[in-house]
Design brief:
The protein is mainly α. 43% of the residues lie in helices and 6% in strands. The chain has two domains: 87 residues, Serine Threonine Protein Phosphatase 5, Tetratricopeptide repeat (Alpha Horseshoe); 68 residues, no CATH class. The protein has a two-stranded antiparallel sheet. Helix 8 runs antiparallel to helix 9. It comes from Heterosigma akashiwo.
């Protein structure tokens, strides 16, 4: 019984109704939940091999390429560069858009003030300060690369490993040194 309960928890990570609505593109439901007081920046964890990966409704909308939902969440006050405090990878919504290759999501987030040079935060060597530009280039997402370059992303930024910094160090950029 205990093992079965653990398997159920793994199969069905904890998510909010707002996160489900955002991922599914259910704009009317998103509006109703926000009007009823849903916290647009609340994060829930999925437990991956490296540890907890926290997602928000905005992250779910970005990953599912739902710009109308993302726009509604941003209009409702969702933080464009939100990082959940205990997240393993500390990726921003823009980094998520770059990873999935969504140029329209990247354009929306940049227009709303997302930092083009934000780096993911290293954790025990898991990530080492990669930017959205690095992920877009690695994935072959040329349109996203062009958007980020036009938005002023530093084409020469280096990861912490390339800079000789220790895994777990502080990323460069505003507030990071």
């Amino acid at each position: 019984p205990a093992a079965a309960a653990r398997r159920r928890r793994w199969r069905f990570p904890k998510v909010t109704a707002l996160m489900r609505a955002a991922a599914g593109g259910h704009l009317a439901v998103v509006h109703r939940l926000v009007a009823a007081g849903a916290d647009v920046d609340h994060g829930c964890a999925e437990f991956g091999p490296q540890g907890p990966v926290y997602r928000t409704a905005l992250m779910e909308a970005v990953r599912a390429d739902r710009p109308e939902v993302a726009r509604a969440l941003l209009d409702a006050g969702a933080a464009v560069d939100n990082r959940q405090p205990n997240n393993v990878d500390q990726e921003t919504p823009l980094i998520a858009a770059a990873k999935v290759g969504s140029a329209r999501m990247a354009a929306l987030l940049l227009a709303r003030g997302a930092r083009a040079d934000a780096q993911d935060v290293p954790n025990a060597g898991y990530d080492t300060g990669h930017t959205a530009l690095m992920y877009a280039a690695r994935g072959g997402h040329l349109e996203v690369v062009r958007l980020l370059a036009r938005a002023g992303a530093d084409l020469c930024v280096r990861t912490l490993e390339e800079d000789g910094g220790p895994p777990g160090g502080v990323p460069r950029g505003p507030g990071g040194g």
